[in-house]
Amino acid sequence: MKKRTICIVLLIITLITLLSGCIKIEISTGIDEEYTAFLSYRIEMDADEIDVRYRDILSNALNRIGWHYQEYMDFSVQLDIENNPNVLVMTKKIQNNSFEQAYTALENLLKNEEMTPFMRVDMAFDSNERQDRYIISAETDISQIMRLSNYEELSPALQEQLNNALETGTGTIILTLPNSEIATHSHQINRENNQIIMDVPLSYTERTDFELSGVLNLLVDGSPGGSLNEITHELTRFRNMSIIICAAVVVLLLIILLLTKLPKKRR
Question: How many CB atoms lie within 10 A of CB 19?
Fold first, then answer.
């Protein structure tokens, strides 16, 4: 199995950090309202809690991580090491023209072992007229990833230090999708600005998994409609408008026909 880049990120940061609770990692992924598939990492370090001997090493490590993602995986990178906390944000976006295209692009992102920490990703998609049904299920196990890396080559002292840091570090996986009718969800769902957002606590010592399935209803222009009621209302309005237009056309044709059949007045 390939060594995963996210493992390298965790390993570098935790090895140079002796204090607990100063590592925050946020993994954001999903599809926005404009059908852009995205994957983003935000790594936040509290420099004030880090031994002064390691601060330059931390800055250099964050800089090298950002450079690696930017040069080899085409991520946009923002790095702030001048202020506290030190923050590294790395984002990759793929623009698409439809939810179906965006879903495929997201699947390719999440299944790329060099970009994500997910050891299992199951995604399915079914597109019908005015409805897109989908399911996303993924799993990661940071401790297992460590065992598949060069973790065992570390000295016992460093292994213990790393384990202590992982046990107290915090992380979150945030999955965002266009507003949908949710069928199943493994964690809490919030709705904000025509989007659904699921927050998944990321464990560094146990398996982390999540699942989300739903139906995305589409309006006539292809944009997300949100609820079935909106789709039904739009279809009813469209049907009524079509009836009105057809009736108007029929009346106009009858008038034209009658006019053509009227006898012409003799002079």
Answer: 14
